[in-house]
Write a structure and sequence with these properties.
heterodimer, A: 1041 residues, mainly alpha, two-stranded parallel ribbon, 60% helix, B: 237 residues, 8 helices
């Protein structure tokens, strides 16, 4: 019976996870970052003349001019040499410079109703008129996500950055892919940075000089711009750089604050116009100027999405030399932002970066002023273009080796086209042939880029909507079944063959998908299996609901007639906590919001319980650790001041060490006292129960001290940590194999003497009482009735032990600094369990009611588990993951990648795991409470639970049904949060903050959901295990007596 | 019909004083808020410099109490049949001292509760203190003086139900709605609008005042039929 419930939970978990994964697949575009570099030798090092045979001896005599000439002759080897540089480059990056800010139509009169921002950059237009051969203006199309960080990445690597670039460094935003700046630096060039500090984050230590200013305050329009403006002329005077980047933020900030139509925008644009004008004045004879915007803005001034207004930036360039003017087809008015990289690379004489996908913009290549270059400009362009084509092809080939993201046919056709081009390139001897070749090469490059774009840029709305639908329908039907059908009817439903048919149907769906795959009707097997089983499951679940519709509707009708404030507020808090996921500021402050809601719910509960005198002290016991855990919270970047405050306090101080050790000691001592007074530590088998937590705690303390002390004892510290892992793992395994902590008193013993000992208060169940009554009457029968210690708390004791072990494990991984927080979770959870148990015991009139955990308790538990994610010092931001956890006990040497991953997950989601493991305790709690303290109030209770948890053993079906309903509801409540996170990410997929707040939140929520599912299932199966061992034990006992 | 029996008389009396009190609160609380916002001092609500706000409210509440106490007692009331109500309305010295001890305790209790709910502990105690003072004046103070310390305690702990007792029900409603208003006020704090009035504890103070006003408005609306009847009676004679 119990196993069937377990299977059903497994099924639900599968559906929920499947929905989440399906959604994530469509939403979280990922790309692997490659760390290879394009290499080339300076052309001075290449051999003279055509590369026919080993001329290595006779090369010393030739001039650079001759060497260069050989480049043009053998193009296929030419990309081994760096092309010569043409000019230096100044990039004025005006953040959010939309195309229509820059474009001015001087020919016609300005329209009277034109927006106020038009015609504010006359410097650009003037140059275009005066120097049409030397200046260009393009529509500069950005690839979404149009956020500054991603755009800068795109503007320097020439790639299409996605939200998750697999293989890139999560902890810092530093770019490890090949890029323009690194190429420049590695070829001995120098770069100077002025402005936005995002550049400095992306490229630390690459700059000759940098003036990096914080870009965080989007309400500050002028500080950064003024500082840059002040430094710019001075830097332009100096001649020691090849690349100068000046990043102005004012226009973007003005957009965020006031929108593009505000008069402030006019002021900022006029200011920018002055900057451009001044720069043009001071520009020397071998410097090319680029004025670019990294993205546009919507009419409200936001950006991040992919509307036309957001992606259409402007790029203006001016060169002191004439620019190439190829035919119309090769002189586009619209270029992509990735095209910027190869163009600038070729001007600076660098090879295009390894993962570049852009195509050189031919009509913005300046004629070279260097008379040493022995070939025509078109030959020069050809060398660059061909290097570009080869690099892109190589990248795609390498990438498709490690990933199957690209369709195979597409790769084949790319290779074919490349071979054709590489034959053609050998036989280009005049300009016309070059232009014809260039047209095809350009087409080829665009083709490759659009293929990558499909894979990396566009949301897969099909997967997203199906994922959302799947998770929603699962939650919907499941909640109807679990909440609508009263628990006493569960056995009937779950014993019927209906569920077996469902599993059968799922099996056939899998078989069908595999069959389709085998006959190659479909391409992606995993996806099809997920989809087909999802459809079948949802259908079967809906049928189950329809079958039981009568019961459900009747039950719900009855519950709606009861006016229950507590239930109402539980629902309200669920609604509120999930709606908060739609707001970015609430996600940022979610930790505080959740503890607020949890405490409010508990206050309502204890106020309306009718026994406030007992519940108020317990409430304070719950609220105090909850409030104390605030000291362990960390802030995220968006929280400004607080974030910078806690940045420098990464060190563990002796004070932290002392609190950590004290809290560990407290945990071990208190739980040991509890178990001992429950009589669960008497057994011979319970040696591990008695000593393992103590030893583990002592060793953990030793590890902290050893790793804190300044002397290098790290290898010893690591072995201590491993010892702790070992001890705890062994005790958990033993716990699962031998979950009963009961002790049968040998029959020879005089039971009276044991009973007289007051220091161990043995918990004897009812038979024991009967035994004493009969003791005087019938001495003979006494020998037959066994005396068993710890039977009244047999279920809960195992879970207490398990949670202690897991808590110790998590505190080791958390480290001395934040370990007390997980112990605070333990304390909050324990006192909350007491509150809920007392309240339930007080209100219930029958055993069935006592076993029914109401929605409020479950919601409290959900809030607790989610809150303590923040309470243990985490935030839903990728940058706040505590990677240090991976070094606990491993010392940084990983044989398997799984080990550090597990450690980091245990560190981050430990609270959720612990809370999930405790779910059976929600059901069990009244029994051990009663056994320990008796009646919570003087009211004579209506339910008799004298015999503790042994009663539960006797009412197996009730216990299992209650356990199932509680666990499933807990899973569902967590799934609702996940669903809302997914929905929020979908709704806000054009939001400015989507990649900073909503998407990370969704990822964290998803992982935490999976951890919760695993924990709940484990706890349920441990319960089953205890139950089955108990039945074996009782059967043995009965046989003996 | 109001003079029909004893209970009705008592009820009428308490209704009259309740109506007066509600009208007064309804005037004072919004007036204070309007004045503050006109002088652009809303964000000062959490500082000692704005101590005149709780003071004004204190004055208003005291005025209510004086009004209730100074009403000529209905002769029947001296009848010994209603000791409880007499005790509740009659001002006694012992009660006064009890209140004097009880009120500061309540300020402290509110302070602790606010901290547990998430108010900053160390650096913003001034603001938290001001809010707990305001809450005490809006909730505990009136109920203390109108009903006494022990009934107030039983309202706060929920250990007794007051069905049928108009004064107590009204007091309970005031306390609940004021606290609920405070609770709701906190919703505005995390939002990233960067407004000066979003600073702790201004939204909670405003929420408390809004809840208080709303509660009194509700009471007055409930009493409208009674007031109408009274006026009708007065014009008749």
């Amino acid at each position: 019976m119990g196993v069937r419930y377990g299977l059903f939970m497994l099924w639900i978990s599968y559906l929920v996870c499947g929905g989440a994964l399906l959604f994530g697949r469509g939403f979280l575009l990922s790309r692997e970052a490659r760390v290879e570099r394009t290499k080339c030798q300076p052309y001075q090092h290449i051999p003279c003349g055509p590369l026919e045979s080993g001329h290595s001896g006779s090369e010393h005599g030739c001039t650079p001019r001759q060497r260069l000439a050989s480049l043009a002759l053998d193009l296929n080897s030419s990309n081994r040499a760096c092309p010569p540089a043409r000019a230096k480059v100044v990039v004025l990056l005006i953040d959010a410079l939309r195309f229509d800010f820059a474009w001015t139509n001087l020919d016609s009169e300005p329209e009277p109703d034109a927006p106020s921002y038009t015609n504010r950059l006359p410097a650009i237009t003037r140059m275009l008129r005066q120097q049409p051969k030397r200046s260009r203006l393009y529509q500069f199309i950005a690839d979404p996500p149009t956020t500054t960080l991603q755009r800068l990445k795109g503007l320097t690597t020439g790639s299409l950055p996605t939200f998750i670039d697999v293989g890139s460094n999560f902890a810092t935003p530093e770019i490890n892919e090949d890029n323009l700046i690194d190429q420049l630096v590695s070829h001995g060039g120098k770069a100077v940075l002025l402005g936005d500090d995002t550049w400095a984050q992306l490229y630390p230590k690459r700059w000759l000089r940098s003036l990096a200013l914080p870009s965080f305050n989007t309400w500050d329009l002028d500080t950064v711009d003024n500082a840059v403006k002040a430094r710019l002329p001075e830097e332009l005077e100096k001649k020691d750089w090849q690349l100068l980047v000046a990043h102005f933020l004012g226009v973007d900030h003005c957009g965020h604050r006031y929108g593009p139509l505000h008069s402030e925008m006019v002021r900022k644009l006029t200011e920018m116009n002055q900057v451009i004008e001044d720069t043009l004045q001071t520009l020397d004879n071998d410097t090319v100027l680029f004025v670019i915007g990294d993205h546009g803005m919507t009419i409200t001034g936001d950006h991040g999405g992919e509307t036309d207004a957001e992606v259409t930036a402007a790029m203006f360039m001016y060169s002191p030399y004439d620019l190439m003017s190829p035919p119309e087809l090769l002189s586009p008015r619209t270029v992509r932002q990735v095209d910027f990289v190869p163009t600038v690379s070729s001007i600076l004489g660098l090879p295009p970066p390894y993962s570049n996908l852009g195509a050189i913009i031919l009509n913005s290549l300046p004629f070279s002023g260097d008379s040493n270059i022995p070939f025509n400009d078109w030959q020069f362009a050809l060398i660059n273009l061909w290097a570009n084509v080869k690099q892109v092809t190589k990248y795609i080939q390498h990438y498709s080796l490690i990933s199957d993201q690209f369709p195979i046919e597409k790769i084949d056709s790319i290779e074919k086209k490349f071979i054709i081009l590489s034959h053609r390139v050998q036989s280009i001897y005049n300009e016309r042939a070059f232009y014809s070749f260039a047209t095809d090469a350009r087409e080829f490059l665009i083709d490759v880029r659009s293929m990558c774009q499909e894979v990396w840029i566009q949301f897969d709305s099909f997967s997203m909507s199906r994922g959302l639908l799947m998770i929603f329908l699962t939650i919907f039907f499941c909640y109807m079944i679990v909440d609508g059908i009263p628990p006493e009817r569960f056995p009937e439903i779950f014993q019927s063959s209906y569920l077996l048919y469902s599993y059968g149907a799922m099996f056939f769906a899998v078989l069908f998908s595999v069959g389709c795959y085998y006959f190659s009707l479909i391409e992606r097997l995993g996806l099809t299996i997920l989809f087909s089983t999802g459809v079948v499951s949802v259908f079967m679940l809906s049928m189950l609901v329809i079958q039981n519709w009568e019961v459900i509707s009747q039950n719900w009708y009855e519950t709606t007639r009861r006016k229950d404030w507590v239930d109402l507020s539980a629902r309200a808090s669920l609604a509120f906590s999930t709606c908060a996921l739609f707001s970015n500021s609430y996600i940022v402050e979610e930790g505080a919001v959740l503890s607020y809601l949890l405490l409010s719910l508990l206050v309502v509960l204890s106020y309306s319980s009718g026994i406030p005198k007992i519940l108020y002290p317990l409430l304070i016991c719950t609220a105090t650790p909850l409030a104390a855990s605030r000291f362990y919270k960390v802030c995220r970047e968006e929280q400004g001041e607080c974030y910078y405050k806690n940045e420098d306090t990464g060190q563990t101080s002796p004070m932290h060490l002392v609190t950590g050790l004290a809290s560990l000691a407290l945990l071990v001592i208190l739980t040991r006292l509890w178990l001992r007074s429950c009589g669960n530590l008497v057994s011979h088998d319970a040696i591990l129960w008695r000593y393992a937590p103590t030893v583990a705690a002592v060793c953990t303390g030793g590890y902290w001290v050893a790793s804190w002390s300044p002397h290098k004892v790290s290898w010893r510290a690591d072995s201590i940590a491993r010892l702790v892992f070992g001890i705890l793992a062994v005790s958990i395994i033993v716990l699962i194999i031998k979950p009963l902590s009961i002790f049968v008193l040998p029959k020879q013993n005089d039971s009276v003497s044991v009973y007289g000992q007051d220091n161990i208060v043995p918990q004897l169940f009812n038979q024991m009482k009967g035994l004493f009554n009969k003791h005087s009457l019938n001495n003979k029968r006494q020998a037959n009735t066994p005396v068993v210690y710890g039977l009244a708390t047999v279920y809960s004791a195992a879970f207490v032990m398990l949670t202690v072990c897991v808590t110790l494990l998590i505190s080791l991984v958390l480290g001395a600094r934040s370990a007390p927080s997980i112990i605070l979770l333990f304390a909050t959870g324990a006192s909350m369990l007491a509150m809920l148990a007392v309240n339930r015991y007080h209100t219930s009139t029958s055993l069935a009611q006592l076993l029914t955990v109401d929605n409020c308790s479950i919601q409290c538990w959900v809030l607790l588990s989610v809150y303590y994610f923040y309470g243990t010092g985490h935030q839903a931001a990728l940058s706040s993951i505590q990677w240090g956890a991976a070094f606990v006990g491993t010392g940084g040497h990983f044989t398997f990648n799984a080990v550090p991953a597990i450690l980091v997950i245990a560190n981050t989601f430990g609270a959720q795991f612990l809370a999930g493991l405790c779910i059976p305790l929600l059901v069990l709690a009244p029994f051990p409470m009663f056994v320990m303290w008796g009646h919570p109030s003087r009211h004579s209770s209506k339910v008799d639970i004298q015999r503790g948890e042994l009663m539960l053993y006797e009412r197996e079906t009730m216990l299992m049904a209650a356990m199932f309903s509680t666990s499933t509801k807990y899973i569902l409540f967590h799934s609702v949060r996940m669903f809302v996170c997914m929905l929020a990410a979908t709704v806000h997929c054009r939001h400015l903050m989507v990649w900073k707040i909503f998407a990370p939140k969704m990822i964290f929520e998803g992982i935490s959901l999976m951890i919760t599912l695993i924990a709940v299932l484990i706890s349920y199966f441990i319960l089953l295990r205890i139950h089955s061992r108990l039945s074996v034990f009782i059967a043995k006992l009965n046989r003996e007596s | 019909m109001w003079t029909g029996n004893l209970n009705a008389v008592v009820e009428q009396k308490s209704r009259a004083s309740i109506a007066f009190g509600s009208a007064l609160s309804l005037a004072v609380a919004p007036l204070l808020v309007v004045l503050l916002s006109l002088r652009d001092e809303l964000q000062e609500l959490g500082h000692y410099s704005s101590a005149h706000v709780p003071l004004a409210l204190l004055l208003a509440e005291s005025l209510k109490f004086v009004f209730a106490a100074a009403r000529p007692e209905v002769p029947y009331l001296k009848d010994a049949k209603l000791p409880k109500i007499r005790k509740a309305t009659k001002f006694r010295l012992r009660d006064f001292f009890k209140c004097l001890i009880f009120l500061p305790t309540c300020v402290g209790a509110y302070f602790v509760a606010l901290v547990l709910f998430g108010a900053p502990i160390i650096n913003q105690y001034e603001e938290t203190f001001m809010l707990s003072l305001l809450l005490t004046i809006l909730t505990i103070f009136p109920s203390c003086f109108h009903a006494g310390v022990d009934p107030t305690m039983s309202i706060l702990t929920g250990s007794r139900k007051f069905s049928g007792d108009k004064t107590m029900e009204t007091l309970q409603q005031h306390i609940f709605l004021t606290l609920f208003g405070t609770w709701c006020g906190a919703i505005a704090i995390p939002l990233d609008w960067d407004r000066p009035w979003q600073a702790w504890p201004v939204p909670c103070c405003l929420g408390a005042l809004a809840g208080y006003t709303f509660s009194h408005m509700l009471t007055l609306i409930k009493l409208l039929p009674f007031l109408a009847m009274r006026i009708a009676r007065k014009t008749k004679y």
